[in-house]
Amino acid sequence: MELKTVELTKQYGKKKAVDCMNITLTEGIYGLLGANGAGKTTLMRLLCALQRPTGGRILLDGQGIGRLGEEYRDLLGYLPQGFGYYPDFRAIDFLLYIAALKGLEGKAAERKAWGLLEEVGLSREARHRIRTFSGGMKQRLGIAQAMLNDPRILILDEPTTGLDPKERVRFRNLISAFSKRRIVILSTHIVSDVESIAERILVMKSGRIVHCGRPGEITSEIRGQVWECAIPAEQADRYVAELNVSNLRNERDGRTVLRVIARDKPMPNAKLAEPNLEDLYLYYFREEDTGGGRRRGSGPLAAASGAAPGRRASRDNGAAAAEGLSGEASGCGRDGEWKGGDIR
Ligand SMILES: Nc1ncnc2c1ncn2[C@@H]1O[C@H](COP(=O)(O)OP(=O)(O)O)[C@@H](O)[C@H]1O
Ligand SMILES: [Mg+2]
What we know:
alpha/beta; Rossmann fold; 2 domains; 6-stranded mixed β-sheet; 4-stranded antiparallel β-sheet; 14 helices; 14 strands; 33% helix; 24% strand; globular; binds adenosine-5'-diphosphate; binds magnesium ion
């Protein structure tokens, strides 16, 4: 199965929410990572055929999705951002209702609905009204409804919003088990989510994919520049103010371990560490910061990325991340457009 966009564009007035995008997706889990306003929701709605592009095409195995019509929709599961619920419905009735809308009825629908409630950990609350659910429970129900028709293409817009750490682990396992022979695309602005779930990460900025690759590959360019250094805890503030610190961790022995992004060894006891996506963001942010006069953003990427309170990444901006991603890195052209051929 191959889902491909060809110069896909969606313009609102002068604003290009999706800008001439060429991507090719095959079976696997894709994490679409970007700050608010990057165009993630617009791209997902286009892929779900809920919006018509102003330019370009979307092809499934070479055929235009417009022409495939119902046949294409039958393959889709979609969790919209800020999914609207029916507060007076009970969870199981809601699923059966959506199942009926998707053409699934009778015993098969019941089996599927109960099975999914079990998988998302809601079987005990199956007969509770949705209005009594927490944010995380609603989100889990939303994930279940998207999976009712066993979709070959599953599109989840910010599926981890509102999930607590335990729910995140459950979600990750669910998606991993589900993703075989399917295309799963999930958007998020939370770095750690895509890092642990997605097999491929697409970083989106201003309607374009500016960066893509497997979690390991995408961070490889800063290998050799991420350090861990232990310091006395009471000196942490001073170091955080002076160095480019992406994280800090307090040890039981009264020391603090800093994660520092630096070209050269920042202190004698520093040890090289394996870079992660957050480090990459901070790295780009720093480049941007010292690159002279370019805008310093502030946005959800930093705030939501699991930053320790008071660490520089979150206090200063952090946003950084996707905002700061330079188009020249990793096969992208100067204009931020992906130049490395199709993204697979
Ligand atoms: N219906 C709309 N009308 C006008 N502008 C829109 C509309 N939907 C989205 N946009 C704009 O398109 C850009 C991308 O939005 P969106 O796709 O929601 O991004 P994301 O999901 O990454 O936050 C934003 O600048 C947003 O304001
Ligand atoms: Mg969105």
